[in-house]
Amino acid sequence: MSHINMSLTEAHDLALSCLITNGCDDVNARACADRMIEAEGDLCHSHGLFRLPWYVAGVRSGRVNGRAKPTVEQLAPAVIRVNGDRGYAPLGQKTAHQPLVDCARKNGIAALAFTNMFHIAAMWPEVEALARDGLCAIAVTPSYPYVAPAGGTKPLFGTNPMGFGWPRKDADPLVFDQASSSMARGEIQLAARDGRSVPETAGIGPDGVPSTDPNVILQGAQLGFGGYKGASLAMMVELIAGPLIGEFLSIESLEDDAGKGGPPKGGELIIALDPAMFGDAPGFLEHGEKLFGAILEQNGTRLPGARRFENRKLTAQQGIAIPNSLHQEILDLLA
Ligand code: NDP
Fold it and tell me: For the chain, where do the domains classified as CATH 3.30.1370.60 start and end?
């Protein structure tokens, strides 16, 4: 596949103007472009410019509010709710960051319920930002029904990711962010686009038989990682980022889309904990480092998140490569 090279700034300008041309105001477009280019910069392409045509389709259809004004509401001393005003998630997330930090520092723990927003993408940006502010954080969200329940053959759960952030001493935070499915949906779509096969654990065809062909899996169902264990985690995410906060299950997000093919509307739950208020202060940072040191003593290990932080340094200098086909698609949307 042929590519075009761009600096991160050029890619950001492209995303920004494409979103503005297609109906977003500056503040919404900027928040989305920031998030997409952060993902490109970390070489997480499935949350980068690849999503731009999908985002444009959502705004053009009128389903997503490109001029959203998210509002923050205190539901209880340690519970905050953000109403995203039917916009894309990044602006709501940006609006909620400082209120969540303040609430966690005051109470030791705070929960943030994001509602009425579209496409809560990767979990790492929030948990990383919270960890950089010295907090420990957990974030989860449902999506569309892509994953079959254990033993079943029909998609029911989202690929429901879970992110975790932990502050570190004089180092980038410890961050992991993983789907509860064997593979993220975007990775299967990218494999289909690029003509690559996927591991047999990734999913099943409509006949329930495991397949390595991403196109067959896209017609059938994905599988949870580790079989029933991943399926149970996906179910937990459905509950705590769905009914708990008054938001959609993945199956309800798809019903709400009603065949328009836009990004999912739904919720996200973030729990932030201030380690300074949990009894191991001020030693918790050193204490955590003991674990990381013991992990890294073993050959063949690395910390989760380390790949992204290395990629970030590289792309800041070298820029990124965008497939020509995607670049042309974006130019067509700008025309
Ligand atoms: P991966 O399987 O690529 O990685 C999962 C985690 O494991 C990452 O934190 C990664 O760190 C870490 N990791 C990978 N290899 C190692 C290793 N050898 N040692 C230690 N840690 C390792 O992620 P997924 O494919 O499951 O998810 C990709 C993205 O898609 C996530 O950002 C997720 O939030 C998003 N997603 C979003 C959904 C949505 O509906 N919004 C649904 C599903 C997924 P590193 O990053 O450094 O490689």
Answer: 73-181+224-304
pLDDT exceeding 70 applies to what percent of the chain? 100
- 122 CA distance to ligand 1 middle (Å): 9
> Does the active-site annotation cover 47?
yes
Give how far Cα 41 sits from Cα of 84, 91, 110, 171, 314, Å.
Answer: 26, 19, 30, 19, 8
- The reported pLDDT for the residue numbered 296 is 97
pLDDT at 221 over 90: yes
Report pLDDT digits (tens) over 88-127: 999 999 999 999 999 999 999 999 999 999 999 899 999 9
DSSP 57: H
For the question of residue 126 being annotated catalytic, the response is no
Radius of gyration of the chain (CA): 20
Q: Which CATH class is domain 73-181+224-304?
A: alpha beta
Is the confidence at residue 262, as pLDDT, over 90?
no
Nearest CA to ligand 1 atom 23: 178
CA 262 / ligand 1 centre spacing (Å): 23
Hey, what CATH topology would domain 1-60+305-335 get? Hypothetical Oxidoreductase Yiak; Chain: A, domain 1 (1.10.1530)
What is the 17 CA–ligand 1 centroid distance (Å)? Answer: 29
pTM of the model: 0.94
Give the three-state DSSP class for 90: helix
Number of C-beta neighbours around residue 194 at 10 A = 10
Give the nearest ligand 1 atom to 178 CA.
26
- Residues contacting ligand 1 via CB (< 6 Å): 44, 46, 120-124, 141, 143, 158-159, 161, 176-179, 183-185, 187, 302, 304-308
